[in-house]
């Protein structure tokens, strides 16, 4: 379980990364809307796993984030008051897409059951 300090750092990293990503000049990153879903910093603050989602076209966002990792980490170090700045590991979060797919499947099932009910009533 994460401690209070880790939670506070996770929130601070999330806030700062949201602003930093707006300043990245790489078109692969700046051309898409990237939302930070969650940040998980290890206890020793050596690593921060950043879970993000993309709204709109992907356009090699992951490669852009890897390319801009040094810049993002440097900016984060300047904004955070930590002795050690964690290494950044970006991970795509597909939960929103999966939720949309599940909702579509449920709608399709509902439509199919309505069609079956209508066919049995007509007999």
What does this molecule look like?
There is one protein chain. It contains five helices and three strands. A three-stranded mixed β-sheet has the order 1-2-3. The protein has 123 residues and is an alpha+beta fold. The relative contact order is 0.15. It has two domains: 4-92, GMP Synthetase, Chain A, domain 3 (2-Layer Sandwich), CATH 3.30.300; 94-123.
List the helices and strands and how they pair.
Elements: H1 4-23, H2 27-30, E1 33-41, E2 47-55, H3 61-67, H4 69-79, E3 87-92, H5 95-121
Parallel strand pairs: 2-3
Antiparallel strand pairs: 1-2
Helix pairs in contact: 1-4
Q: How many distinct folded domains?
A: 2
CATH superfamily of the largest domain: K homology (KH) domain
**How many helix segments?**
5
Q: How many beta-strand elements?
A: 3
Classify the secondary structure makeup into a structural class.
alpha+beta
Question: How far is it from the N-terminal to the C-terminal residue, by CA?
Answer: 59 Å
Compute the average pLDDT. Answer: 87
Beta-strand share of residues = 15-25%
Highest-level CATH class of the largest domain:
Alpha Beta
Q: Can you tell me the residue ranges where pLDDT is under 50 for at least 5 consecutive residues?
A: none
Query: Which bin fits the share of residues in helices?
Result: 55-70%
Strand order of the largest sheet: 1-2-3
Question: Which radius of gyration do the C-alpha atoms yield?
Answer: 21 Å
Using the alpha-carbon principal axes, give the shape.
elongated
Largest sheet: 3 strands, mixed
Secondary-structure element order, as H and E? HHEEHHEH
CATH A-level architecture of the largest domain? 2-Layer Sandwich
CATH fold topology of the largest domain = GMP Synthetase, Chain A, domain 3
């Amino acid at each position: 379980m994460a401690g209070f300090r880790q939670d506070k750092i996770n929130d601070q990293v999330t806030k700062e990364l949201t602003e930093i990503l707006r300043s990245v000049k790489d078109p692969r990153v700046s051309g898409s809307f990237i939302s930070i879903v969650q940040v998980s910093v290890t206890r020793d603050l050596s690593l921060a796993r950043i879970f993000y989602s993309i709204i709109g076209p992907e356009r090699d966002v992951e490669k852009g984030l890897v390319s801009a990792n040094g810049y993002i980490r440097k900016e984060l170090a300047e904004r955070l008051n930590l002795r050690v700045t964690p290494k950044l590991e970006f991970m795509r979060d597909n939960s929103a897409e999966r939720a949309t797919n599940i909702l579509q499947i449920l709608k399709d099932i509902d439509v199919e059951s309505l069609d079956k009910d209508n066919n049995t009533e007509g007999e």
